């Protein structure tokens, strides 16, 4: 079991590295393919678009494929996408290659989360899923800075080549250590789509899009906020981003046990504390020490939300959790795009570099509201189900007690 979870964590590490290292290599990519930096930034959007499209699409296509085999196919596609990125000769082909690399992202996390949850006892499922997510957070500490440094020294293509090597290692580890998990008799695209129609699944995805959008409203503009307001030099921002990753790792470590004990309270607490930290960052961003402490806490609270939302979607989708789990990562990428857009609007409106913090806090509070709405609906549905059982039992009792009249 530990080796199987390690294999899944390696997959997550590769995904996290390829997703975020591009942002640090945009000047090199722009020079290499002869475009402007803003135009090169579109390859980041191409990857995110691939995630949004690929999560439901590839999960649906593979709805009847055994989980281990599906993980291997998706990992192979991930390797192909990054190799294509490394050899893309121009902007158009690089855009297509990044889209291709993003396609398996959500499905890998979704299928991997389902596989991880089945490797352990039900009361430890969230801990297993959070261990897989550790690969993503550690990528922000090690993989992204290392990939950025490699790309700056040896050329941006070498970074994608290194990620492809990580993908091959992950593929080998999955083949060796992840046990076979056959799909149930009811598996199939219709079964998965029917589960996606659950209202709680829709509310959970909405919570991820809106609430996690608060995290990305600040993360997207963290470097210019630090250089313009905190006074941190450009050369030191990589270390600060690594500190952000440390916070994310700490949040992921505590998210598993807390979610296993109390799923909804963990989600409520994470969103509330994220909102409070984002408001605090609006004031602490002018102090180096205060900003660094707050950044670490924001990273921790952002990651604290991920595991309970993932487990909630898997629980509410019941016997067809794979597409719901994968769609969660589509939701996170929509949160990335939406949070960055709203934070950018605030800056463009002249509200100052610190304004994305308040935008993010508002989004976190809105996400908390959606989470509370889902909890209230769950309690109401539970009471309705209980009353239906009691009414049905009473009717059966009356029927048994009624005298029988014979003609």
From TrEMBL:
Residue ranges of every copy of the Major facilitator superfamily (MFS) profile domain listed in the record: 2-379
Topological relation to the membrane, as annotated: Multi-pass membrane protein
Keyword Mitochondrion applies: no
Cited Gene3D superfamilies: MFS general substrate transporter like domains (1.20.1250.20)
Highest taxon of source: Bacteria
Positions of transmembrane segments: 44-63, 70-89, 95-121, 133-152, 158-179, 200-223, 235-255, 267-285, 291-313, 334-353, 359-377
Transmembrane helix is among the record's keywords: yes
Region of interest (Disordered), ranges: 383-407
Comp. bias intervals (Low complexity): 391-407
Protein name, entry field: MFS transporter
InterPro entries linked: MFS (IPR011701), MFS_dom (IPR020846), MFS_Efflux_Transporters (IPR050189), MFS_trans_sf (IPR036259)
Protein's cellular compartments: Cell membrane
Keywords annotated in UniProt: Cell membrane, Membrane, Transmembrane, Transmembrane helix
